[in-house]
TrEMBL record, chains A, D, E:
Species of origin: Succiniclasticum ruminis DSM 9236
Subcellular location: Cell membrane
Keyword flag Plastid: no
Keyword match tRNA-binding: no
Name of the protein in its database record: Methylmalonyl-CoA decarboxylase, delta subunit
Pfam families referenced in this protein's UniProt entry, alphabetically: OAD_gamma (PF04277)
GO cellular component: plasma membrane
From TrEMBL, chains B, C, F:
GO terms for biological process, alphabetical: sodium ion transport
PANTHER family: OXALOACETATE DECARBOXYLASE BETA CHAIN 2
Compartments (UniProt record): Cell membrane
Membrane-spanning parts: 20-39, 83-102, 108-128, 135-154, 160-187, 208-234, 254-271, 283-306, 355-375
Xref: InterPro entries: OadB_MmdB (IPR005661)
Alphabetic keyword roster: Cell membrane, Ion transport, Membrane, Sodium, Sodium transport, Translocase, Transmembrane, Transmembrane helix, Transport
GO MF, any single term: lyase activity
Keyword check for Transmembrane: yes
Cellular component, GO annotation: plasma membrane
Keyword Membrane: yes
Species, as recorded: Succiniclasticum ruminis DSM 9236
Membrane topology value: Multi-pass membrane protein
Protein's UniProt name: Oxaloacetate decarboxylase, beta subunit/glutaconyl-CoA decarboxylase
Length: 115, 377, 377, 115, 115, 377
């Protein structure tokens, strides 16, 4: 089966129609998903934090990761309290990847999650 | 303008909406339900979510996944030739601690007894009209070992792969719901309160020799499961050797995760409407439940036997862990035991039958392959 | 002594110096230039350095890479049958945050508008004498998605793979140079200073349902890109599900890195002199630049439309991010916006069109495959 | 070669015999291994610890991993001494996986263990 | 095409000639590279440090990794200041592998470096 | 009851006990001995333990590993077509520091001289009746590079793969025992006490250009080893480029570990009784020892030459490191040197010949492939 047409303009137009069409349908889908969302709540107060934080994140290198923040804060506090604060450029907490590995190993004694 | 409409028409004609059968639609719904179960309800999400997503992809018409070379053909090759289950088992081996079993080898018997569920289910399946190879594949659901079930089914009855994988992984995740009532039925409160002696220390020597010796023995007796048992024990050797931690880590993480993705997406891909949407699928799901229940009950009953022969030193609750579903079944034993007696810690004792159940199911699969032979031979 | 000379002669006769064509020599130089661009200048080093190294290896004569089984044949199999691009897309999906898009679905339109560059380029290529399938493959450079460009090119015009991959990845890394002048041309200073409202919070429910729903819809409409879209969204599901972090990590790291090595070395291997050293390659590189520029301009212009229809609430700078080249294009929007108004933070707003551009390019590729069909069919 | 029999009860019985037989032989093997174990000692005192610890491990999330305990203890002590103790929920030590990576990199300067 | 010769001594001689020849050419290449090196500077003072440090590295286990030294130093200082110094055998910093993972995740919110 | 006995009989008939040859039994013992050496004695455990386990699995009858598709066939494909050694070399490259070699290129000559062991061994093998290709494969044991030895042997004399791999890895792990006496024999105490000047700093530029330039030169001269050298140097480029750390990490860890498992298990699988249990195996093991000893001696003697030509500035002990066996041989030089003079630090100086030995062995393999050609051609 050969192509339907060889006219590049026609191909371009049809393609743009399809691309717009598909993405518009996706947009409708998104609205539908939002509408049927059973978990929807007044999440506004929470929303403020991340957006406000974004600029800071853009400006500075990401120093501290999600869940590990507390720990990092504690270590940083300890370090600061001991008077060695200037050099703390980046306390890298073991990544989630690492913590899965830790978890995997911790469970490995008794656990086979795949079996 | 006409050309435009003709062209749009041709895009539509080549789309999957054209050619979408009602079977496909239902299978898409099945995929969505499985996704809900996997992610929403947490039923074995690592496996079921991929199976479900594979089911979605496999029921889109005109993708060419089943006839044109590409990534899905590579994945399907690994499914159709049982490449993936032994590699998963390597990772499982690297995560398995045979220590509690080595400390108390008698618990092997509980792992054997619980395989009774496999054969109760096999008998039921044959009585319901499944042929011998189908019945064997359905029975193995009762073994509660995903890779073994997939390995056997691909060899014996590949058209049932989707139904059996879904049933196996669903029930494995439902173990905490299925087992406790059966366990309380098979035991008295006094039984459940029995505290067991602490396990002896197992030396590194024993931990290293066991996987080697058992590989040789089981493989020689049952060559059809040599790939499964060999890889399980090789992974365990990585764990225990002390000098192979690099390989143990890879077998448990990078390799296992990659193979898990491929295995489960590929299993989902095989869920075609004409294979899955048959009343047999419902029978398979019912039989799977029977198998789990029977395995649990037989494990507990054999636990009662061991309680009596040991002079009351064995808590029969650990028998239910023999169905494998590692480590969930062992945790269920622990929880049920602790409910009867809050100072009761059965977890390590239940790990013995639990890992014995993995070996037991592989042995059962090997015996059926030896007796019945793979399909088409 | 004579035997010694004969033998040394025979080693020389079997060497690659014998049989080295001028084309090979030029391609070795091309490889070195690409290596310099990749490592010295930092143009998409993860991809381009491997493409360049593959180009070096592929232009050594008598290696047998193209006719004898071996590691390179395994890699070339994955290239020639589009095994790798969907796996890369799985990792991309696991790294993609559809949140900003879900928060503001209107930005999808910007991702659609920027695909105009693809078709401007396609038209140009056909006017310059490329056949339809070649023109489609060249056009997709404007989509600024490496895996999609490779996927389409292998299906449509595999002899152009090297040139198109090099052009695509080069321009993707040049986005910070190409886009800003066009963006300032298409916007007024007042436009660029517009601050946008903060995005609403997106729930986990939306994040999980979206990849599933979009997979089903796009795959049904355009089955030829089901592998790409399916894997992209499966990776995203790993990211969002909450219980699949193991798989998300592997898809982003071990698996993605391995596949990246194979994809890019394999792409380099296909850069034979007779395919690459043609004046068409120069046309392709020029057309690629046109495509990027046109996409950027069309995105910004559509951004102007949205600014007007929204009553001045949309900053048209985020339109340029619709070409994808995630996340660089979004960062460019941020930087250009901040230059006009230092308190302006467009990054998250630009991420919407940016990830929409990934979907848009895949849709464009699928439409072309549906309308035109793969080569040789 | 077809199957030997189609009688499901016979199949079930034979299979159970084989399964029990194999696992009993494995049990015998285990006893043999224990008997020939040249490293066997009076390990009883050591045995007590892990079993006693098991309940605790079940009850609480595994916070601190094997060899890294000392380090964690040190950090925790430092943190505590500095008066920031309440927040120390989990000091995740870089997992063994990580330390192999560290080791690999440390050795990489001079080492190719595979070659 | 059969082998050129079967005389083992001839093969050995030719091979050694080729091996020496190739490695000598590589040596020439190295000198050429050094000569054309546009980044070459009076790097002598820097050279001293690593070589002097080598013995120490050989003698002791590698405790602290490249870029993370500052952080480790800070933590060690903090620990020391708090009086728990004896036990600090090895402060393993999250490996580079980990930090890539961290970085990848940090970027993942907004970044697809491969696309 | 009779049916039961018939059925049990049939399980036995299908078992591997039936069909187990005395050769298999001996090979199982060989596997156990190798496992003991690998895990108990710590001889290259990462490789030898898997080779040994593969030897066990490969000598179980009726597994179908050699004739039915499955995971073992996938692994054997990678063995039989040299897919794995180049991938291992990629990881090796990512772990290799060519800095000491670049700082003192003269030490390349030591890496060349130590390859003399390869040819001493080749001559010996031919005198003992091995044919030319077998002798070449046996000789390469003296190169002390596992992947190169496997690569050459698979091409030249695949039936010797097991014996050669076992000999190569065993002796590589025995380097600390084999080398010191030979080194003291070839040097005086005064020689061993020589302290060497500290090495100059090597710039990043040199580190990046070297792998590229050497790939082009060696590949052009010896195309049959382009895959090996190319991957080694690509891995090294990942290490040195500064912007490819992701790929360096994967090449050293996930990918390398996966390929190591497959390579070494697959090598073990090829150890069939009829190939391994021949008196030639004993000859190979003896010849391998000769090769290591000769390489060490020739390295030290060439070190003496360099000591004289340099006016006593070169410690001849670093010559023994030219056999490669990275980094063990370099450490042996360090230890022996420090014994003679506690303030002597030869490690970095010995790393030069050590990594030169890796290149030298690949060159020797390429020369033999160019002169002799692969088997069956
Ligand atoms: Na089981
Ligand atoms: Na795009
Ligand atoms: Na060598």
């Amino acid at each position: 089966m050969g192509p339907v047409t060889n006219n590049p303009f026609l191909i371009a137009i049809i393609n743009m129609i399809v691309v717009f069409g598909v993405l518009i349908v996706l947009g409708v889908l998104m609205h539908l998903i939002e509408m049927v969302d059973p978990t929807k709540k007044k999440a506004a107060p929470k929303a403020a934090a991340p957006v406000a934080a974004a600029p800071a994140a853009v400006a500075a290198a990401p120093v501290v990761e999600d869940k590990s923040e507390e720990i990092a804060a504690v270590i940083a506090a300890a370090v600061a309290a001991c008077g060695g604060s200037e050099n703390v450029v980046a306390v890298r907490i073991a990544a989630p990847a690492t913590s899965w590995a830790v978890g995997a190993r911790a469970e490995a004694q008794t656990v086979q999650p795949f079996c | 303008m006409e050309a435009l409409i003709v062209s749009l028409q041709s895009v539509w004609n080549d789309s999957g909406f054209e050619g979408l059968t009602s079977g496909n639609v239902i299978m898409l719904l099945v995929g969505l339900i499985l996704l809900y179960m996997a992610i929403g309800k947490g039923f074995e999400p690592l496996l079921l979510s991929n199976i479900a997503f594979g089911c979605l992809l496999g029921n889109i018409p005109k993708t060419g996944f089943f006839d044109e070379p590409g990534v899905m053909q590579v994945i399907l090759y690994g499914i159709n030739h049982e490449v993936f289950p032994p590699l998963i088992f390597m990772g499982v081996g690297a995560m398995t601690d045979f220590g509690p079993l080595l400390a108390n080898p008698k618990t092997l018997l509980l792992g054997a007894a619980a395989q009774g569920g496999v054969f109760v289910c096999l008998i039921g399946a044959m009585l319901l009209g499944f042929d011998l190879r189908e019945a064997a594949s359905i029975g193995i659901i009762g073994g509660a070992d995903g890779p073994t079930a997939i390995y056997l089914t691909v060899k014996m009855a590949p058209h049932l792969l989707g139904a059996i994988a879904v049933a196996a992984y669903s029930y494995m995740s439902l173990v905490p719901l299925i087992q406790p009532p059966i366990m309380t039925l098979c035991t008295t409160k006094k039984d459940r309160m029995i505290k067991m002696d602490q396990l002896r220390t197992v030396t590194k020597f024993e931990r290293i020799i066991f996987p080697i010796a058992s590989t040789i023995f089981i493989s020689l007796l049952l060559p059809p499961v040599c790939a499964l048992i060999g890889m399980l024990m090789l992974g365990n050797l990585y764990k225990e050797a002390g000098c192979l931690d690099r390989l143990s880590d890879t077998a448990q993480n990078a390799l296992m995760n990659i193979v898990t993705i491929f295995l489960s997406v590929g299993t989902g891909l095989t869920m075609e409407a004409e294979k899955f949407l048959r009343y047999q699928t419902i029978l398979i799901i019912c039989l799977g439940l029977v198998a789990f229940a029977a395995g649990t009950a037989l494990g507990c009953l054999f636990g009662q036997v061991m309680k009596i022969t040991s002079g009351g030193k064995v808590n029969p609750l650990i028998g239910s862990a023999g169905v494998s579903a590692v480590p969930m079944a062992a945790r269920v034993s622990q929880v049920v035991g602790q409910k009867a007696n809050p100072s009761n810690f059965l977890l390590m004792h239940a790990m013995g039958p639990n890992v014995a159940g993995v070996i037991g199911t592989a042995v059962a699969a090997g015996t059926m392959l030896a007796m019945i032979g793979p399909a088409g031979k």
